[in-house]
Structures are given as C-alpha cells and as structure tokens.
UniProtKB/TrEMBL annotation:
It holds the Pfam family PTS-HPr. It is found in: Cytoplasm. This is phosphoenolpyruvate--protein phosphotransferase. Belongs to the PEP-utilizing enzyme family. Its EC number is 2.7.3.9. Residues 159-246 form the HPr domain. One of its GO terms (biological process) is phosphoenolpyruvate-dependent sugar phosphotransferase system. One of its GO terms (molecular function) is kinase activity. The keyword tRNA-binding does not apply. It comes from Desulfovibrio gilichinskyi. Its cofactor is Mg(2+). Keywords: Cytoplasm, Kinase, Magnesium, Metal-binding, Phosphoprotein, Phosphotransferase system, Sugar transport, Transferase, Transport.
Amino acid sequence: MIDLNERNIVLGGQASGKIEAIELVGNILVHDGFIAPEYIESMKRRESVANTFLGNGISIPHGLPENRDEINKTGIAVLQIPAGVTWNSGEIVHLVVGIAAKSDEHIEVLTNLTNVLDDSETAGKLAKTKDVNEIIDALKGNSTTAKRPAPTLDTSDFDVSLDVTIGGEHGLHARPATHFVDIAKQFEAEIVVEFDGRSGNGKSLASLLKLGVSGGKTIRIHGRGPDSSSALASLKEAVDEGLGEEAEKNILPQIEHGWVPESVKQVIPGCTASPGIATGIVHQFTHNRIVVEAIAKDPEHESHELGQAIAAARRNIRLLYEEVRAKSGEPGAAIFRAHEAFLEDPEMLAETEALIKNGKSAGYAWRQVIDERVRVMEQHDDELLAARAMDLRDVGRRVLRHLAGVVQDAPFKPSEPVILIAEDLTPSDTAQLDPALILGFCTSGGGPTSHSAIIARSLGIPAIVAAGPSLLEIADNTMAILDGDTGNLYIEPSQSDIDAANKVKMQLEELRGDEHRTRFEPALTLDGKRIEVVANIGKASEAENAVNAGGEGIGLMRTEFLFLERETPPDEEEQFQSYKTMVTALNGLPIIIRTLDIGGDKEVSYLNLPHEENPFLGERGIRLCLNWPELFLTQLRAIYRASKYGPIRIMFPMIATLDELEAAKRLAEKARIEVDAKPVEIGIMVEVPSVVSMAREFAQEVDFFSIGTNDLTQYVMAIDRGHPTLAGKADSLHPAILRMIDHVVKEATRAGIWTGVCGGLAGEPLGATILAGLGVKELSMVIPSIAAVKARIRSISMKQAGELAQKALSCRDNKQVRALILP
C-alpha cells in the first residue's frame, strides 16, 4: 500500500475551475517529491483525452502514460473543495485525488474510491469533513464503506476453473473481448472471469472491458453448468491463439519528410493518427444534442421502445459494416462487429430494464447505463482500452437517436474541401466521411489507437488526435496545414508555407510507390498475358473514384444502397438516373450491375419479410427478386435504359438452380423489350455449391461467371463469413475453395465464356496471383487494392502464376497455401 498521510491531504481548498484544481493537487505531489513540476502539464493534457470525473463529487486527475518518466515515485494527493468546483458541464467535484502512478501500487486506492462511489452518503461526508483521518481511512480501506466492495468471488460451487494469460500489447480491448464473449455465448454454462480481485460476466462485453485486463496479465475463468468443461477448453484455446487479434498494419506508411513551416500564427501539437499532409480551411464539426425525458409512466411501453431502438441500431451498424468493408476491407470494418456485440450485452440490457421498471424512460435509462460504463473505461491506464470508451459512446448515441425521436446525425458534407475539426469523431462519423471533401481531420480528444484513427488510415485521410481543447476555438474558414506525419496543425500559415506544404504533399504521394504511380498501366504479366483489374463499389459516387485508382471498370456494382435505409423502394426513374450517372462517369469502361441482393443480413422494412432462423439460407438474392417480380422488373427496366449510355452487363446474385436462372432471364428479356433496349451480356454470381457442381450446364446459359468467393466460402465451409469468432476459419484460400474455382474456370473455358472473381480473394496479392494462374480473366476488388494488385500481376509471368496455382491446389489446408512463396 502506498503511503498516505496528513501531508498529502489539503482540506477546505478553493479553486476557480478544473485547471486550477489540477494545478493545486499537482503542486501537493510536487511538494512531497512524487512528481517533477512538468508532470502537471501532462495531468492537464490528460483531461483533453479522457474525463477523469468518477462521479459522486470525486475526480482522479493523472498524467499521460508517455510522461511517466516525470514521476519520481508512486503517490497520491487529495484536495478537498467543500464548495465544489465545476469539472465539466454538470459535474461538480468536491474531492480531487491526484495520482502519480509509476507502477500499479495505486490500484488499491482506486478500488476503494470505486467503493466510495457506490455510497453517496459517505462521499458527501468526505466532501465536508474537517478530519483528514476520515479521508485516509476511506482511501486505505479502513472505513466501513471502503470495506464494502463486491464480495469476494465464491468459487466453491463452480464446476471448473483455469488460469490463462491474455496476450497482445493491449489485452482485452474491444475486438478480443468480443471474440471471448462470442465464444462464451455458444455454451449454456455460466462463465465468470476473475482478475485482480474483481470479477465479470464472461458473456458481457462491457463487463469484461470494465475489468481492464492489460496485455500479459493472467485471468482466471470459472464455469458452472453442464457444458462448462467444454466452454473453458474452447475459451482457453481462443486465448492461446490470440482471440482473433492481429497486429494492426498501417495501410499508408508514415514517411519522415523533414518539412516544417517558416511562418505560422499558431502551432497546435497532437498525436499522429493517419499520415499525410492537407492544406485548406477548417470547419468545426459538432453532434446534434439528443434530449430524452427522464420519467415515463408505462414501463412496458418503454421496454418495447428500447427493443425497437436497439433493433434499428443493429440494422444501421450492419449496413455501416458492409459499407466500410466494401471501401476499405475487413480490418477497418471489424470494429462494427464489436459495436453490435455491445447491443447484445446482457448486463447492460438488464440494468437498463431495471431502471425502466423503476419509472425511468428508455432513453434516460439507456443513457445512464452507457455513461457509467464509458466513465469507467475512460479511466483505464491502458491507452487503447481507454480509447474504446468512444466506441461504446458511439453505440449509445446510435440507440438514443431512435429513442429520442431524433433523426440520425447526417454525415457532414461540405460544399468545398475542408479540414474537419472536432472534439472527437466516433467510428461511425469517420466511416461516413467523404475523402474527396474531407482533406483531413483533427480532434481535441481521442488517440492514435482509436478505431476512428484506424478507419482514417484505411480511407487515406490525414488525421491528428489528442490536440487539446484550444483546437475547438479555431474559427471556421481559417486557413491551416495539417501534417499527419508529425502530428501538428499549423494555423494561418504564410502563402509560401502553403505552397511548400502542397509540394511536400505531392512528393509524399509519389513516394507511396510504383504501385500508385503506375496504377493506370494495364495488368500485363511478364509474358504478355492481360488480367482485367476492376473495382467493387456500393455507391454511384464511387465509380469515378474507382477509375481514378486505376480500375479498368466495375466488376461488381452493389445496387442495395438504393433500397436500404428508406421507407419505400426506389422508383424506376431514380434507379435509372443513378445507373446512368455511373455509366457516364466510367466514360466507356464496362460495368457489371448486380441485381438486388437483399435478404440475409440486409433487411428492408417496406417488404415486411418474415423473420427467418437462417436468413442466409432463406429468401435472399434472386429468390427474393423472383418472389417480388414488379420490384425486379422495375430495376431491370432502369438498368436496360441506362445501357443505352455505355457498356453494361447484368449479373444475377445467389443463383442456385437452372430454373431460377431461366426465370430471371425471362423477366430480363421482358424488361428489355418494354424499354426497347439492345441485348446486354448476362452473367451469374457463382456463390452456391450447386452452381459449381453444375458449372458445365450453367456455362451454356450465360455470357460470364463471376465467382463471389466470400459467399462461396461461407456456404462451402458452413461458416458465417461475418461471424466474429469463426470468420477467420472461412479462408477463401482453402484448397476446397480453390479446387471449386479451378473447376468453374475449366468449365467456362470449355464453353467459351470468361470467369471473373469479385470476392475478397481477388484483392490479396497471393490470391490474385493464384487466381490468375487458375485462368481467371477478371479480378474485382475494393478500390484501395487496385494499384497493388495490378503491380503484382505485372511482376510475374503467367507460367509462374500457373505453377503457384498448381501448388496451391495440392495443399492440404489454407495454412499450407498461405505459406507458399510468391514468385
């Protein structure tokens, strides 16, 4: 236990505000030799990153982890302010506990403080006491209240227990904790996780995050129930394998350019989150305030409203996941799986329902539960775990928007390119930024490990975080230079500095490699064989982006964006205008438009589709379209009308039988005749094993195949490709999938038609090489992968690709395939 005595405590203090209070308590720490004076500035900066208000009139200001070398020894100091000081809006602090944590010796004090928080009477007494010993007793755990923590976990009636060590640098943060929870939920057994004298529900994401388990720490897992042994064995295996966590790779490398401006009015330092330089005017971004009533008269109605709001939020999150995955791949989108897990957290839901039963409104109850967990997470010493509080806050706001009747905040869409300034950006905010209009962003809070930073990197948007509250005082339309490589925002630079920064920006873009510089060159192998490299897109606005990234057309246009998140389906004219816009933007390059593929995890309210136990095996894709012929015909007419303006191909999704294909082709022909259009090439997605098995017959009926490796892998391996714990095993490089692709390509070649691949496998350098070697003629992928894959194809001969493909076909599993060395 660290030393705490009368010298460390000041009673009856006064402070004009939070900053002065931090300085006063910091000076106590300095006077007693715990910290160097410089550490006080770090304590102030911490407030711009995370709120240190605990509740019940108590705050715990402390410095940032990177300034621990300014701590001489671990210690605490207490400043009592009987009159109170405003910490943040609506937060009044009476007890300021300054912490200098050189090691983990302060944990016991924090535990005791948490116990005081549960007793407002004791907290109020400490705020007014004139006896320092009462404060000492409370913080040392000698008082009655301090001895009232959650009772020691009784493990006598658990069936099985085991110890495991959490790997990774940051321990149980959102993604690995989600992985843990999802495995635990597969079993009936009660799962309890014990760490550092505390315990949490192993099936509750928020409960696990609250434990604050850092990397390298050991936890004890307890199980109770008929399948508890199996549950703990699976959890141990998952922990040993890393809980699905892989080290994050920067999509854009950070480059030391050495440039600094010569004449600027102000420099605002922060932390680099995404590299790159941006010059332009700034614009302040704020969220709409969400207001909810505190009291409600009908608990049953409020409970129903909560369920509806959570369901709506879940649909929003799933759509956002698909959008981000389409734009930047799985790593940037993965956090939204964890967001969905928050919505299913049993402890959060139970606590919210309890407040509703006590007369609170659904919105008020939900906000209370979210805010309490956010507060706990923000206090964690591990920077990454503290940053996850923003994810939970994001989920909380998403539900509150529905409960308050407030329309979801629209993504900011400026009329001209700007540098966005904000207190912080949620992952949802960041994912919806348009890189064409958002030159970069800078936030006063957040951290470089936040999911917003990860998404910014995947989108190629320069970003700075943790720049402090002075950032929010910058007026709109102020000229600035944002340097994501050094983490500095330069305000009101001279014209010469602007010109110099723009020059450096151009140099950096060139230094990102030959892949980018040669993106418009065709993907010709060393022996002169051409592979067409095209893009997967999900919005009309992305067509031009695909071409600018080096795409030679669109290999998959997902039309679902026109049908989702609305109350009525789009009419023919709206669809026609959208398709025409894309065709025009491509300026003669081909586009494959996939007809409506909803069902599965994509839901639309206006169709009133019945609930399905296995939606991926139910009414989705072409099955749904054939059951709604007018909806289908409207889309087909719009596509054929747009085909008069450029080369369009039509592709049907989720075909499983020849009957389905024939029915779809009949409706397509009907629509073509109705709008007097010329025939276009018609193909199908090869996603269902039945089509692979009958590829010879299907090849006689279509003009091309496009293999959707994501869904094909899902159906062949019997693994939901979005499953948070099993998706890693659904690898499209498994020999079972490659052999199916090989069979389809051979049957297509025999029939004189071509085969493309539009799944995630096409965007991997290894996958692209193997696919080319198997005879695939077109590779369609997310936009950021285009330049790299084209460069990869240009670096090999078709003979080398073929040899690598044959080796892959003879492998026993996906691990052997991935161990193959690229030529």
